[in-house]
Amino acid sequence: MKKIIVPVDFSKQSEYALKTAASLSLKHDAEILVVHMLELNRSLTASPEMINQEYTVFLIKTAEKQLNEFLNRPYLKDVKVTPIIKHYKVFSELNEIAEKHGADMVVMGSHGSEGLKEIFVGSNAEKVVRHSHVPVLVVKNEHTDFKIDRLVFASDFKLKGLKAFEKAKAFAELVSAELDLVYINTPYSDFLSTEDAYARINTFLAKANIADQVEIYNDYSVEMGILNYSKTNAADAIAISTHGRKGLAHFFSGSIGEDITNRAKIPVVTFKIG
């Protein structure tokens, strides 16, 4: 782990993400790229009028001042921090930053969202999870010394998720966590008999060239199963793959990874399939 992206909006949740990233940085000698996204109106920056240009410069200078003050934290004293300000709130730009700087992951804070708020607004974390090509670690509480002993990785163990699993395995090894593999069996979606479930799982494990054991956990939905299994087994964090659906496909189908990111109380790290 060499570089970590942390999107900030100066909220308490941003502080949680920054502290988590600082802890990881000190352990792995990684640089932190702190990204603040302004919500500028594009007509302002495109306008030739002097008053609009002056106002845009004022907003950018104000944001720079706020960001510098926000980064004046004792826990960042021994951490290499690079501040980045983007003009618009476009979460897909994080991929451009990750590619340009060779970032390994995104760490961000979230308070989560459920119900109507989630349907019509969603959370910033959900949007980042949907767009990011690199792993995204989402935290909802303060972690001064971020440590994961038990990491639950939930999967359907179809071969298309093999790359996501390899990334999760590498992450577990990086943070010295025990990787707890689970398949959630439900009565309503993709139900498998025990024999068929293990046939799929064993094919996956053989392809991954590992001999780990996988728990089959039954619940009424995949989301409930992941959350309940993680709670029952005292997991410190949840790892899950996500398809990163967008547009109407996301609205009608949703994403289990995004739902878990919103609902879980413990940290969640997502890995895009493919």
From TrEMBL:
The UniProt entry, under InterPro entries, shows: Rossmann-like_a/b/a_fold, Universal_stress_UspA, UspA
Per its UniProt record, what Pfam families does this chain match? Usp
Start and end residues of each UspA domain = 1-140, 149-271
Xref: Gene3D superfamilies: HUPs (3.40.50.620)
Similarity comment: family membership: Belongs to the universal stress protein A family.
User: Per its UniProt record, what PANTHER family does this chain match?
Assistant: STRESS RESPONSE PROTEIN NHAX, UNIVERSAL STRESS PROTEIN UP12
Q: What is this protein called in UniProt?
A: Universal stress protein
UniProt organism field: Pricia mediterranea
Q: Provide the organism lineage as a comma list.
A: Bacteria, Pseudomonadati, Bacteroidota, Flavobacteriia, Flavobacteriales
